[in-house]
Amino acid sequence: MFEKSKEYTREFIHTVCGGSKQAFLPTKNGKVVAICLRPDLNPHAPEAILCSSAASTRAAGRTLATQSEAVPLFIRSEADKYRYIGHYAAVESLTTPMECSPYVEHSGFKLAQVSRVIKLKSVAVSK
Fold first, then answer.
1. Reported pTM
2. Which residue segments constitute the domains of the chain, with CATH numbers given?
């Protein structure tokens, strides 16, 4: 499927996983199928990711926070190149400003723009 540290395009990620080519949490059939992050907006990734307050992001963040399945996580290295980090699953969801505040620092977001922080854990995937 994906090789650790190898780079993939959003088109390839979409072909393998499905969901939106633009969303950072693409969904398919009611499940988040991948996590595609910009490091400037998610400085604590892959341990924690920020969900903005945009309606589609709020909904996808809520879905990821409650689903048990691990999904492939990618961090953008340059325009349309995303490095595969591994499969990750949500372990905690923070929604209060006080809980989210430490994760928002140095992220490019203001606290009012963040709806939740999702803490993630690495999950081994059998090949």
1. 0.95
2. 7-123 (2.30.280)
